[in-house]
Amino acid sequence: MATFETVGRKEILPPDDNFQEKIRQSFRHQGVMAALNGELVDVRPCYVEIHLPFSEATRQQHGFFHGGMVATVADSASGYAAYTVLEADEECLSAEFKINFLSPARGSKLIARGSVIKAGRQLVITECSVSVVREGEEIDCALMLHTLARAKYVKSGPHSD
Amino acid sequence: MATFETVGRKEILPPDDNFQEKIRQSFRHQGVMAALNGELVDVRPCYVEIHLPFSEATRQQHGFFHGGMVATVADSASGYAAYTVLEADEECLSAEFKINFLSPARGSKLIARGSVIKAGRQLVITECSVSVVREGEEIDCALMLHTLARAKYVKSGPHSD
Amino acid sequence: MATFETVGRKEILPPDDNFQEKIRQSFRHQGVMAALNGELVDVRPCYVEIHLPFSEATRQQHGFFHGGMVATVADSASGYAAYTVLEADEECLSAEFKINFLSPARGSKLIARGSVIKAGRQLVITECSVSVVREGEEIDCALMLHTLARAKYVKSGPHSD
Amino acid sequence: MATFETVGRKEILPPDDNFQEKIRQSFRHQGVMAALNGELVDVRPCYVEIHLPFSEATRQQHGFFHGGMVATVADSASGYAAYTVLEADEECLSAEFKINFLSPARGSKLIARGSVIKAGRQLVITECSVSVVREGEEIDCALMLHTLARAKYVKSGPHSD
Q1: ipTM for the complex?
Q2: Which of A36, A90, B91, B148 has the fewest beta carbons closer than 10 A?
Q3: pLDDT digits (tens, 9 = 90+) for B66-76
Q4: d(Cα C35, Cα C45) in Å, to the nearest integer?
């Protein structure tokens, strides 16, 4: 599927055996995903897949998925992909992302596939490709490049400054 | 406020006298903004301001605004800023955007201020700065650079391909 | 190699039979590539590869390739990849690009592999991955996502406005 | 000139009294800038200005500045702007940047004005606007948003991994 096959890409072993439960628990605490009926479909080392069904709450003026919703599901999938390579006491923060829209997100469901490109000492670089399901067929609709910063886990939530 | 003061920035006169009504009508048709209680606060030539209150539907796992929600309100404000410079028979499509997160979006409300950087023949370049209201004070939380493509208005919605 | 394997990626047949000569001729007219000894190594449908040897003119303060040089070779490879899908009377202009640096560009040569992600009616979206050759081994050093706008060929050069 | 006037932007006092000399010395060690006759024109807290004259070594096929050269001078100006807010024992590495091209870089000189948007604990966010001097007039030609990571100074150069 959507993985940027770079020259030296190696499979990274999650340093935290508990990464899947950590991610599922975090996902359950996201009001956004609950409100939008987002579904955490797959969590594997360096890879997270999230599905988002079309609804009134995801539509823009033409009846397609709003670009912000495409970015939201991509941000979540690539962000959680980064979680798969974190230490047990770490989480990460989005520093920035860039997204290109390839075709109108017209369809019944978004499928976001996030994966890790590089796990550095300070930063984790991830990507996400988003496709939309239209009449049973998957059509590419967006690509994201995402930079996240490692942070020590804090109960009150992380701070970028 | 948040305007990228470039050397030659000129005020662009909206070619469509009806731009404000066109934008307000489009905004009303966005299921997303309705579901999130987004408010279209200001529509002026080259400038659009949208406010988004904090709610369960906008939160991530730490109780802050989800990064995707910050991107959604920024995408809407800068996208509608682009609408202010379109011809009457045009709309525009997001080609891509990039967003940097400056601090955690912890607060009661997001304020997104979108403005036009350049209105080209094919593309419109806009920016958006997003601040979060925390204990009555505005704190910068994100910056977006946004590229949109002009398209002739079509009832069924625009197509990028 | 470095290709973003998206769900629906199709091989696009170059509409201009003369695309290779058009690209080689354009490349020969780039003062930059001549000055830096850049080499156009491969030109195929949807794919262009450029090599850039390390030299005093490409170095930053630590003796690595300057980030701007990494961006320059990536911009050229992905830009020419876009040329492979243009009509005979078209060229294209960079609207924007985003590049992530994965590791320091320390080595003897940069290898930039540009390819087409999508050829739309107005825009062509390309990507480029850049590796650096260090002690005979290729190491990923950067990834670029690039948006170009089609333009009718004009002798005096294209204009984005 | 080109500063993103965000809500809470504060002037940051350089923690290193020697920041100007540190930057000038680093600049002198950049083979790229020497080869291109780049000139470090101004170094102030949170602000660096670099000029780049047009030459055969900076041109693309139409006789304009190559997009990569526009990115190179912007990367340098915004990167050195970040240097103005570093500790004495720190330097920084480009994590990524995104650049939008506003008009063809046709003219005799590029002027890149880099400034600091935010100096975080791990990351420094900067911007750069680039104008081109054409018949004595400055014309906006590009805008960059740039993310850099702090690193402890190492003689052998920094490493992002």
Answers
A1: 0.91
A2: A90
A3: 999 999 999 99
A4: 27
